[in-house]
Structures are given as structure tokens and as C-alpha cells.
Amino acid sequence: MAAAASSLGRSGALEITRRLAAICGPPFSRLAGPADEVAGRPARWVAVPGGPHAAAEVLRLAAVHDLTVVPRGAGTKIDWGATPVQVDILLDTGRLAGIGHEPVDALVTDVGAGTPLRAVQATLERTGQRLAMDAPSPGATVGGVLAAGEAGPLRHRHGSPCDQLLGVRYLAADGELISVGGGAPGLDLARLLCGSQGALGVLVSASLRVQPVPASRLWVSRPVWTPLEVHDLVRTILAARLEPSAIELDLPGGTPRPRAPYPPGHPAATARERHPSMSGRAGAPSRAGSLVVLLEGGPADVTERAERLVGLLHGEATIAHSAPTWWRRYPFAPGDTALRLEVPIGDLHAAVYALRDAAGSPVPVRGSAGLGVVHAALPGALAADRVASILAAVRGVLLARQGRCVVVSAPAAVRQAVDLWGELAGLAQLRAAKRHLDPEHRLAPGRLPGGL
Q1: Using an 8 Å Cβ cutoff, are 154 and 39 in contact?
Q2: How far apart are CA 406 and CA 408, in angstroms?
Q3: How far is the C-alpha of 18 from the C-alpha of 20, rounded, in Å?
Q4: d(CA 201, CA 194)
Q5: What is the layout of strands, in order, in the sheet containing 404-409?
Q6: How far apart, in whole angstroms, are the C-alpha atoms of residue 75 and residue 254?
Q7: HSE-up of 347 (CA within 13 Å, CB side)?
Q8: Looking at the DSSP assignment, which residues form a beta bridge with residue 178?
Q9: Ramachandran angles phi, psi of 112, nearest 5°
Q10: Choosing a second label site near 295 at 20 to 30 A (CA), which of 57, 99, 157, 389?
Q11: Sign of the C-alpha dihedral computed for residues 261, 267, 268 and 273 taken in this order
């Protein structure tokens, strides 16, 4: 494949450029620039097809010339996952956009893959509806959210965006336009595309569940200092059966012990120092973290549930009508090594402690404490071998607890030195799916685990 692409020569490259311009229109095809790369791998051409049939033509052109194709939405997660082996054509889905007009009581909407999620939510909101999708990436497209398997706080109650799928239209590697859905086998295939980073098919549109916008929303927030304290509180929240829409955690990093928030002898200070999670643990975070619960529903019902929750959480629990500033934001910044930890909720505290102990100090952690799915950030300046040793230690702890730690994104040196995925139970099934859907490994080759 790489040899075929590199052997095109000048005349062959000019022919590809000409054909892409004929398919997409001259303003919507070009030679790739410095910003057109995927996890550090530069592309050769960028194509922005104006509809599904034009996108199919791009894929057929790629098949004829044995070129690779990597889909791109808004590019908010273009550096997530493994670096592809080769990127010949970057297929931009920006013009595969639009929102289908369905009756309000249909509780379904058909959305083009290139449509920004926030545009869909704004359109639905005019009729009192929403998608139960709140992915953190600003500007992300619906197709990008699905292809990356990205989910936000609402996954606690409503599941991931892929759980909202009723069907999809996608392009196979040979350019065939396929519609799936309307039953278990179809949905199984549709959901297989979720999290595939475009390596199993190019999403064209998705049919998604719609729900009424809640009449009222309240956020109940409680300061927390340690992972074990979080464990105890989450158990209390779940046992109360208050039907939370989200249970989110924000634990800061830092090494200095905090200035005491209460004077010596204050009951709150004494309670915190005596909490079992403080025993034998050095390096407390430099400020308190937060455990925040989102409650949604009718105004009276939500208020009553929020007041009950404040009583259960004790401490400094408060009620707010808006989310905290960190809500729906990742704890990592560009250039950091971003991790995703998944573990049974009863073992989340063990995972966070393992990460803290391996790193030698508290690490910023944020995510869905009620599901045991959180993200963490290691400094981008950390040496690759140090990151590798931290990963090995954390994965060793998680393996015994049926959890996993995945590197979401990382600097180039780290990306090359570490195993991004760790143990993956479903690798054989993924390999079979790749073999069936993309036997020539033309779609985003190398983006999936196992070099698929």
C-alpha cells in the first residue's frame, strides 16, 4: 500500500489531484498542508465531498489507486488513538451535514455525520427536545463523537452516544453506501463502527433517539479530598435511588499539602483528618476536589431529590442551578499524555491511588465516578520511559480488578514508546471485523489496536 502510493510519481499525483477536484469541486479539494495530519502523520490530499455519493467516489478513486483514506470531522480528536500507518486522502466530512425534519412526537432524528453536535442540540431545543449526548470536545461533529466513542456526563443515566443509535448510513472501503439498523443485527453492526476511528467505515449519517428537554436541572456539589472518600460517597448516592443523570468527579493534581480550610479543632477539619482515606497517604492534593451530581426532571421533584441528597452527603454539600466550570471538560491539555481509566465503580479509588502512587504525586482525574470511567493527565514533559513505568504499574493493579487503562493521546515520543491500549479482550473480534469490512486495510490503517 505504501509502495503503491509512493510510486504514483508526479503525473499520477497530478491525476489524483485533478480527479478529486472533479469529484468534490475545485474549492473543496487540495494538496494537504502542515495542519492536515492525523496523530502526527501528514496527509497528501484533503477532499471535502459535497454528499454521500461524492464521498463514495472518493473511496472508489482511492481503491483504484490503492490509496489510504482517513475520515475527519471537526478535527477535535484527530490526535486521539494510534498514529495511522499512512494517510493519503484526508476525507473531511464537513459537507456531509444536515438535520432531518421529523415529527416532534417521532422521538428520532436523522443527522449528517459532519453536523456539529451543538448545532443539532440548538435545533432540537427549539421544539423542546435534545439528544442525550454531551461529549466534551467543543465543536465536535456527530460523526466524530460516534467514531471516537466519546461520551460526557449524561452517559451515567442514558448510556453512551452509541447507545442512542437507531441506525446509520456508512460507506464501506470500496465506496458502497450501506444502511443498517431497524433490528438487533443491524444495530450490532452500527455500534461496531462506534469507537472505530473511521477504520471500519466512513459514517455518513446517523438516526438517533431524541428525548424531551428536562423541565429542571440542579447540580449538587460536595468537596472531596481523597479517592476513598469518593468511593464511600458514590455508594451512598447509588444506594439512595435518586435517579441521577450524572455523577462526576474532579480531583486536582499537585504535591503540596493544602492550607487548612478550617481552623484547628473545627469539626470539619477533625472529621477530614480522621477519615480512613487519609490514613497512611502522603501527598494530598493542593485543593479539594469535587463530586457533583446532576438531577433532572420536574421542578418540584428535582428540588426534593436535591435536598435529600444534600442531607445524605453531609459535609459542605451545596445546590446550584448551573454546572461547575470544569463540567464536560477533560483534565488534560494539548501536549499532555491523556489517559482513560475504566474499572468497576467499587474499585475506582484503587485505580486512582495506583495512578497517584506510580506517578509519585496526585494526578488530575476527572470523569464519571458513578460508572468508573475517568480521564487523567500526565505532564507532556514527562519522559517516555517514565510514562511507560507508570502505565505498567497502573495496568498491573487494574488487571486484577477487570479494569483497563488506555492512552487517549500523547506526545510523539510517548506514543512511539508505549503500548497505547494494554490488554484488549475483544482483539480477535476486532480483527475479524476489520478483515470483513476493510480487507485491504485501506481505511485509517493502524488506527485500531493491534495495528489494524
Answers
A1: no
A2: 6
A3: 6
A4: 10
A5: 318-320, 216-224, 289-297, 246-251, 365-368, 373-378, 337-342, 404-409
A6: 31
A7: 16
A8: 170
A9: -65, 145
A10: 99
A11: positive
Chain length of the chain: 452
Cα–Cα distance measured from residue 254 to residue 362, given in angstroms and rounded to the nearest whole number: 6
Q: How far is the C-alpha of 344 from the C-alpha of 448, rounded, in Å?
A: 24
Dihedral of alpha carbons 437, 441, 447, 452, sign: positive
3-state secondary structure of 289: strand
Cell (9 digits) for 372: 468508573
Going by their DSSP bridges, the two strands 69-72 and 87-92 should be labelled as parallel
Tell which residue, 357, 334, 309, 340, has the closest CA to residue 404. 340
Which residue type occupies 54? A
CA distance 189 to 323: 35
Q: Which three cell numbers stand for residue 306?
A: 436535591
Take residue 253 and report the three cell numbers written for it.
493534581
Scanning the structure block, which residue is given the C-alpha cell 466513542? 149
User: In this structure, are residues 337 and 289 in contact, taking their beta carbons and an 8 Å threshold?
Assistant: no
pTM: 0.88
Q: Read off the C-alpha cell for 106.
A: 417521532
Q: CA triplet 140, 145, 148: central angle to 5 degrees?
A: 120
Q: Which helix (H) or strand (E) holds 353?
A: helix 348-359
Residue 65 to residue 158: CA distance in whole angstroms: 43
Compute φ and ψ for 216, nearest 5 degrees.
Answer: -145, 145
Q: Are 116 and 122 in contact (CB under 8 A)?
A: no
Rounded to the nearest angstrom, the gap between the alpha carbon of residue 129 and the centroid of all alpha carbons in its chain is: 23
CA distance 167 to 28: 28
Burial class (CB in 10 A: 0-12, 13-18, 19+), 443: buried
Gap between the Cα atoms of 224 and 241, Å rounded: 21
List the grid coordinates of 406: 488506555
